[in-house]
Write a structure and sequence with these properties.
Helix content is about 5%, strand content about 50%. The protein is mainly beta.
Length: about 230
């Protein structure tokens, strides 16, 4: 059963990401782009699980050198060979878009307001999606014992965080981490969340400008039971 789950998870990850642009370290595909140091750009791409797949949310905040929102800019992200135009809605200077599913290949960000305010060709390596293999929902594991956690992804992310209801750990995206016995306490309902991410500093923007991709996935609940 575990092997079948692993095979299905690998198939899901590979299908979602298309297998494109996935050779070498993902951070080698990052590039800070070009710009004239006129904009503070904070760009986030968040992949969250939904029924049957993922929802990708894009949000880009654009400010000028006086920390004022920049409205009516042209904000685009190229992904999956498609250029997405983000729309300014609600908060001034905040541009958003949503996409059902996930994409393959490197993401490219461009932000322009006329000819005088711009950052262009900022590239972010795609970290793909992942699946948690162990423990699975409905499992019962022993409290006060080391708890191996396993997951699968098709490319290693530069950064990852594993969280439970009680603790959070900075981990290598290696597919395995062992929660120490002292931190594996009895619970009738426990869960794990794995957050993987990649980030590039925008070299053509003002200090603090970045382009970041996060992929989050949680396990279904399982039981941590006292051995006695």
């Amino acid at each position: 059963m575990r092997l079948a789950v692993a095979i299905a998870a690998v198939a899901l990850v590979g299908a979602a990401c298309g297998g494109n642009d996935l050779t070498g370290p993902v951070e080698s595909r990052n590039a800070g782009g070009v710009g004239n140091q006129s904009l503070l750009v904070r760009a986030d791409v968040d992949l969250d699980p939904m029924a049957g797949g993922f929802l990708t949310r894009f949000e880009v905040d654009v400010l000028d050198r006086f920390d004022q929102p920049v409205s009516d800019a042209d904000v685009t992200i190229v992904w999956n060979y498609t250029s997405l135009s983000l729309v300014e809605e609600g908060t001034s200077g905040t541009y958003t878009a949503e996409l059902n599913g996930s994409g393959s290949g490197t993401l490219v960000l461009n932000v322009e307001k006329g000819d005088s305010l711009y950052v262009r060709d900022v590239k972010l390596g795609n970290i793909g999606i992942h699946a948690i293999l162990d423990p699975q929902g409905g499992d019962t594991v022993a409290a006060d014992s080391a708890l191996p956690v396993r997951w699968v992804s098709d490319v290693d992310a530069p950064f990852a965080t594993l969280s439970s209801r009680d603790d959070s750990f900075q981990v290598m995206d290696s597919g395995e981490f062992v929660i120490p016995d002292s931190l594996n306490q009895a619970r009738s309902s426990q869960w794990l969340t794995l957050l993987r991410y990649n980030e590039v500093q925008i070299s053509g923007g003002l200090r603090g400008s970045y382009f970041r991709m996060e992929v989050r996935r949680a396990s279904d609940s399982f039981v941590v039971r006292d051995p006695g």
